[in-house]
Design brief:
Distance between the termini of chain B: 36 Å
Structural class of chain A: mainly beta
Order of helices and strands of chain A: EEEEEEEEEEEE
Number of strands of chain B: 11
Largest sheet of chain B: 7 strands, mixed
Strand content of chain B: over 45%
Helix content of chain B: under 10%
Oligomer: heterodimer
Order of helices and strands of chain B: EEEEEEEEEEE
Structural class of chain B: mainly beta
Helix content of chain A: under 10%
Largest interface: A-B, 18 and 25 residues
Number of helices of chain B: 0
C-alpha cells in the first residue's frame, strides 16, 4: 500500500537558519503530494502541494519539488523564523476519493 | 466562514462509556473524513464519506461507527470506549484539491 516516510524530529534551528525536512514516498501510479503544517493546539493546514513530477509547490517561503526518480518531496526554507515552529506532515493522495496517507510528522523548533 | 467545526474540544470518558463526536462543514464539500492522531504515528484515517449517504472504512475503523447525517455533518461514535482510543480526533472535508481540517477533539479514556 501507499506509505510516506519523513525524518524524525524534533528539529531545532536558530532563526534565519536553512531548513530541510526529508520526505520519501511509496505509491502506485502518480500520486499528488502535500505538505501540511500544524501549529500548537490547532488542526492541520495545507502548506503546499504538487500534483505531477517536477512540479514545485511553494508558499510562505517554503518550497518542495516533486521528484519522481527519487520518490521524494523534501520541504525547504532558506531562512526560518520563530513563527515557523510547528509540526510538518508530508502526505500523498493516490488512491482516489481524495484520501490522504500521512507521514508521522516532524516537529520544528526555531529559537532566537 | 466557519470552515470545519468539531465538538466537543475535550472529553474524558471511563472505559465502556459511549459518546459521539460531532463535525460540521459549511463549504459544501462532498467528502468528509475522520482521523486520529497519536504520537509518532501521524494521522490515520478511521472512516470517510465520499458523498452524502455513503461511508467507508479507513485504516483503523475498529471500535468506531460513523453517520453522514447530511451533506454538512459527519459524526463519529464510540460505542464502548477503550483506553486505546485515547487520542486527538480530527474531522476534515475536502474540495477536489485540498482537505480542510477542524481544530480537533482531545479524548482521554480512563
Amino acid at each position: 500500500g501507499d506509505s510516506v516516510t519523513q525524518m524524525e524530529g524534533p528539529v531545532t534551528l536558530s532563526e534565519e537558519a536553512c531548513l530541510t525536512i526529508n520526505c520519501t514516498y511509496t505509491a502506485t501510479g502518480y500520486p499528488s503530494l502535500f505538505w501540511y503544517v500544524q501549529y500548537p493546539g490547532e488542526g492541520l493546514q495545507l502548506l503546499l502541494k504538487a500534483t505531477k513530477a517536477d512540479d514545485k509547490g511553494s508558499n510562505k517561503g517554503f518550497e518542495a519539488t516533486y521528484r519522481k526518480e527519487t520518490t521524494s518531496f523534501h520541504l525547504e526554507k532558506g531562512s526560518v523564523q520563530v513563527s515557523d515552529s510547528a509540526v510538518y506532515f508530508c502526505a500523498l493522495e493516490g488512491g482516489g476519493g481524495n484520501k490522504l496517507t500521512f507521514g508521522t510528522g516532524t516537529q520544528l523548533k526555531v529559537e532566537l | 466562514n466557519a470552515g470545519v467545526t468539531q465538538t466537543p474540544k475535550f472529553q474524558v470518558l471511563k472505559t465502556g462509556q459511549s459518546m459521539t463526536l460531532q463535525c460540521a462543514q459549511d463549504m459544501n464539500h462532498n467528502s468528509m473524513y475522520w482521523y486520529r492522531q497519536d504520537p509518532g504515528m501521524g494521522l490515520r484515517l478511521i472512516y470517510y464519506s465520499a458523498s452524502e449517504g455513503t461511508t467507508d472504512k479507513g485504516e483503523v475503523p475498529n471500535g468506531y461507527n460513523v453517520s453522514r447525517l447530511n451533506k454538512r455533518e459527519f459524526s463519529l461514535r464510540l460505542e464502548s470506549a477503550a483506553p486505546s482510543q485515547t487520542s486527538v480526533y480530527f474531522c476534515a472535508s475536502s474540495s477536489e484539491s485540498e482537505q480542510y481540517f477542524g481544530p480537533g477533539t482531545r479524548l482521554t479514556v480512563t
